[in-house]
Amino acid sequence: MPFEVSLSSCWLSGRHEDGYEMLREIADLGFEYAELSHGIRVTLMPGILKAVEEGWIKISSTHNFCPLPVGVNHPAPNYYQPSSPHSQEREMWVRQTLSTLDFTTKVKSKRIVMHSGSVVGRFLFDPFRKVNKIKAVRGDDFDMVEDVQYLDALEKAKGKLLKKASIAMDNILNSYSRVLPRAKELGIKLCAENREGTMELPIDDEMSAFLDTLPEQEAVGYWHDTGHAQIKHEAGLADHYELLSLNSDRLTGFHLHDVTGEDRDHSEIGTGRINFDRVSQFFQPHHALVLELHPALKVEQVRASHEIILSLLRNREREAKS
Predict the structure, then answer these.
(1) pLDDT for residue 142
(2) Is the peptide bond before 67 cis (omega within 30 degrees of 0)?
(3) CATH code of the domain occupying 4-118+173-321
(4) Which of 58, 112, 220, 284 lies at a C-alpha separation of 20 to 30 Å from 101?
(5) Taking the alpha carbons of 234, 236, 241, 244 in that order, is the dihedral positive or negative?
(6) Rounded to whole angstroms, how far apart are CA atoms 183 and 104?
(7) CATH 3.20.20.150 boundaries in the chain
(8) HEC string of 68-105?
(9) Could you give the CA distance from residue 321 to residue 92 in angstroms, rounded to a whole number?
């Protein structure tokens, strides 16, 4: 079973001035595919296009916004939000997303990873204030998923968030509706990613229903981030594997990274708390398996992470033959 195992440019784009050399470094590490993450500056584009045209590297996916808005020189996937109460910001989100669609076509990719906005905290609105207070009082050693008071506060917070989110969700739906026809025309899937922030949308329990509401269903996908899912799983906010199962029919790709210490994600795979063997049961050949690793990780850690994923895939192949 051939799989697209890819390395996200988030690991190295900040230290490269030439997109060609950036992709050459990824290829030299043994990757046939790269993801162009949300830190791709306009100045990196010519080299990227040259590398893709020469054919020695393929682009598994891009991450909105790609390239970055003009004048922005740091990763900024939430620079404009489709959920914004301000029509001008939503308009800019549409323009930048259309730009990502066009660039994704130029680099011959068919997937865009999407952030879908958040609930704006008006008047210091934070439904998770009591939840965070309980965590602070309990300290780091208490079991969140077994603490009745914590879970009760969590459910109430989620209910408050859902009530507050209705207008934002309407804005998100309208924003997506303006770009999905273009995605369908180009044969590209917009892949909504599960998010780590408690105020980000859609909340995990609503992901499947959200995807169902979008038009142009053939241009819609789900993108699973293992670190985000694990952090929320441990906080009682979502079930990591139920989230995967409920959205498995729409899965288009993964951001693969581990969670270590006090919820430090984008860590070396195999050094943290994620059961990647269980996650790998959801891998399919049409998925992009993207290692999304922190820029501070060393080359050896990237190689080790890559080898673990390749080993899991070899196990899958043996299982398929047996």
Answers:
(1) 67
(2) yes
(3) 3.20.20.150
(4) 284
(5) negative
(6) 10
(7) 4-118+173-321
(8) CCCCCCCCCCCCCCCCCCCHHHHHHHHHHHHHHHHHHH
(9) 50
For 49-80, what is each residue's pLDDT tens digit?
A: 999 999 999 999 999 999 999 999 999 999 99
pTM reported for the whole predicted model: 0.94
CA separation for the pair 163, 304 (Å, rounded) = 44
Residues 6+ apart with CB under 8 A from 128: 154, 157, 161, 198, 199
CA pair distance 267, 260, nearest whole angstrom: 7
**Phi, psi (5° rounding) for residue 221?**
-145, 170
Range name among 52-56, 67-71, 148-152, 275-279 with the lowest pLDDT average: 148-152
Averaged confidence pLDDT in the chain: 93
* Residue 216 falls in which region: left (phi positive, over 0), alpha (psi -120 to 50) or beta: left
Q: Give the whole-angstrom CA distance, residue 245 versus residue 125.
A: 32
**Element spanning 300, H or E:** helix 299-321
Is residue 35 within 8 Å of residue 59, measured between CB atoms? yes
Q: What gap in Å lies between CA 78 and CA 119, rounded to an integer? A: 12
DSSP run (H or E) holding 301: helix 299-321
**Between residues 126 and 93, which one has the greater pLDDT?**
93
Over residues 231-269, the pLDDT tens digits come to 999 988 999 999 999 999 999 999 999 999 888 999 999
